[in-house]
Amino acid sequence: MLVKGWMSSDVVSVEEETSMMKASLLMKEHNIRRLPVVRKGKLVGLVTDTNLKEASPSKAISLDIYEISYLLSEIKVKELMSKDVVYVKPDETIEFAAVLMLENKISGLPVVNDQQNLIGVITETDIFKALIHITGVYSGDIQFAFCLRDKPGSVHEVADVIRSMGARVVSILTSYDLADEGYRNVYFRIRHMERDQLAKLVDILEEKFTVLYTVKESLKKVADRRLHRD
Question: What pTM was estimated for this model as a whole?
């Protein structure tokens, strides 16, 4: 899946000459922690709430509220912004965007086109939404994990058994990172099955394959998943 399918095109940004005070107010108003800085629509920098806090006058400074307001209105975003901005392009994958965020320890990326025009932003929340979409967790409440030999047809064999029991596969995901050499971990998510049918399917799968786990989960629990203290 591509970034352009998950990014937000409704971007809050500022120009270089925007005052620090206005940038701070925009962040509070929109409940965001970073603002892309543009020059005639092109991305030239990024200012964060940390930049603004570090530039704010210390409480130890003996200035009255009017003097502080004046200072904040005089400092421009271009004096605070970072010019070393990590960005992503709309036709790159969300997986690539996730790697950029992870490797750079950031929670969002500006999206720019080939002309460096700012056209959107993608955040870790957008990545989470895409991940949920890929896994199919809203459509299937049962997941099987298998350790399979890394050979052609191994996934197809499992799928055939699952379908032979009337189960409907929602998603199939594969990972090599946690598997031994020559093997891979494969995760099948299927739609709801009645308890008896599911038990029969589990027995057959465990007889034929190496099943790492079987999980049946209800999203009805999400709304009440809170730690209740006395």
Answer: 0.82
